[in-house]
Amino acid sequence: MSGAAAAAERLAGRLDELRERRARANAAFFAAEDERVARLCHRMAERFARGGRLLALGESPAARSDARHVAVEFVHPVIVGKRALPAIALSREGGSLARQVDLVAEPDDVAIAFGTDDAPSGAAAALTVAALEACARRGCLTIAFSAAGAEWEFAPPSDDPFVRQELAETLYHVLWELCHVFFDHRGLLEGREARRVHDSGASSFLYPFLGETERGLEDVMEDVRRSVVLKAEDVGALREQTLSDNRESLLAAAAALRASFDAGGKLLALGNGGSATDAMDAVADFREPPHGWPPRRSLDLTEDAGILTAIANDIGTDAIFSRQVIAYGQSGDALLCLSTSGNSRNVIEALAEARRRELVTVAMVGYDGGRVAQEGLADHVVVTRSQHIPRIQEAQASAYHALRELVELVGADAA
Fold it and tell me: What is d(CA 203, CA 192) in angstroms, rounded to the nearest whole number?
C-alpha cells in the first residue's frame, strides 16, 4: 500500500471512530436523562405560561453560538404549529454577563448557560457561572451542562468538547420542541385554565403518542419521555448517515481546507437562522480550537449586524453574503455554507460568487440536498437526509466538527 493510500485509510478510520464515539455518547446520555428532560419541559412550559422568558447565556465564542442558536429557535419557530416564545441571548458583546442579568432577568424566566465547563477559557466559564448564579438569585429556573450550581444540570458523557456541544444542542432542541406539548394540556400548567381536550393542531405530527383526551400529568410526562427517546434515536441514525454517506466528501473537503490554510488562505462561513449560529460555532472552532490545535484564519459572515441589515435594506436579502464574499474573498480562500434546505437564495448567490473568485466551496445541506446538491453548486457537498430541521442541524454540527478535526489530521499525515 502506498503512503498516500495508507494515510487516506487512517483518516477514514478516524472518521469511523468519530462517528462511533457520537453514537455511544448519544445513546448513553438520553437513556440516562429522558425522564428528567420530560420533567424539565413541563417546568419550562409553566414558566412560559406565567409570562417568563428564556435567557440564554454564553461568554466564550463557542458558547455564544449556542446561546444565539437556542434563542432564535424559540423566537422564530421553524415548525408549523409552534408558537413563538420569548427568548434573549446574552453574551460578552453586551458587556458583563452578570450586569446584563441584573438589568434583564425576571423571577419567572428560565436561564440556560453554555460554556460553564470551557477548558480553553476558565475565565469565560467563571463569568458565565456568576451570571447563572445571578439568575438564580432573581428566581429564575436555571439549566447548565456541567456542575455549575444550576437547578437542572445535564453533563454529557464525553470528554470531547465537540461531542458535548452536539449533545447539548440536541437537548435544547428537544426542550424547545417538547415544552409545547404542555401548552396543549392547559390544565397541567399553573396559571392556565383546564380544558377537557387538548388542541395540538398543526403540530400534532410531532407527538405521535398523544391521545385526544386530557389526562393526568404522569401520563403526559410518559408520552413526552418516549418522544425524547425517539428524537434521540432519530438524530443518532442521522449522524450515522451523515458521517458515513458523506465520507469521501468530508475527507476531500478537509484536504482542500488544509491546503488553503497552508497556502495562507482563510475560511469564510455563513448560514441563515439556526444555521447562522452554526456558522458562528464553526468559526469559533477554527479560531479558538481545542486539543492544542493551531488557530486558523476564519471569518463569520453572519456576525456584523450593520453590514447584514445595510445590504438587506438597500439591495435585498439575496445579496447579504455574496457582497461580503466580494469584499473579503480571495483566490485560494474557502467558503463553508450551512443550509437545511440547500435552496436559500443568499447561500446560492454566495456560492456562485465564491466560484467566480476561485474559492474552495464546501456546503452542508439537508433534505435531498436541494439546488446546491442537485446542480453541483459547491465543490464538496455533505447531505444530511432528513426533513426535520432540528435533527438536520444537530447532524450538521457533527459533520463540521469532524471536518475541523480532519483538517489537522490531514496535516499530520502529510508531515
Answer: 20
Cβ atoms of 42 and 217 within 8 Å: the answer is yes
Placement of cell 419541559 in the chain = 41
Q: What is the mean pLDDT of residues 318-344?
A: 98
Residue with cell 424566566: 109
Dihedral sign for Cα atoms in the order 259, 265, 271, 276: positive
pLDDT value at 191 more than 60: no
Which helix (H) or strand (E) covers residue 63, if one does? helix 61-75
Integer angstrom CA distances of residue 402 from 114, 221, 236? 21, 35, 15
Helix or strand run (H / E) with residue 314:
helix 305-314
Q: What is the DSSP letter of 142?
A: E
The residue range of the domain holding 71 is: 12-234
Number of domains in the chain: 2
DSSP assignment of 345-400, as one string?
A: HHHHHHHHHHHHTT-EEEEEE-TT-HHHHHTT-SSEEEE---S-HHHHHHHHHHHH
pLDDT over 70 (residue 50): yes
CATH number for the domain that contains residue 338: 3.40.50.10490
Largest CA distance in the chain: 72
Q: How many CA atoms lie within 13 A of 237 on its CB side?
A: 9
The neighbour count for residue 343, using CB atoms within 10 Å, is 15
Would you call 151 exposed, middle or buried from its count of C-beta atoms within 10 A (0-12, 13-18, 19+)? middle
Give residue 145's pLDDT band: very low, low, confident or very high (50, 70, 90).
very high
Q: Do residues 252 and 207 both lie within one domain?
A: no
Picking from 329, 75, 41, 139, the residue whose alpha carbon sits closest to that of residue 67 is 75
User: What cell does 376 get?
Assistant: 453541483
Q: Considering Cα of 207, then 213, then 216, then 217, what sign does the dihedral take?
A: positive
For the chain, what percent of residues have pLDDT higher than 90? Answer: 83
Amino acid in position 308: L
Whether residue 136 is found in the same domain as residue 40: yes
My answer on whether 166 and 305 are in the same domain is: no
* End position of a domain, from candidates 234, 260, 283: 234
In one letter, which amino acid is 92? R
Residue 197's pLDDT band, with cuts at 50, 70 and 90, is very low
Q: What is the rounded average pLDDT for all residues in the chain? A: 91
Cell numbers 466551496 correspond to 361
Q: Of 62, 90, 86, 92, nearest to 74 (Cα)?
A: 86
Q: Where are the beta strands (DSSP E) in 29-102?
A: 54-58, 87-91
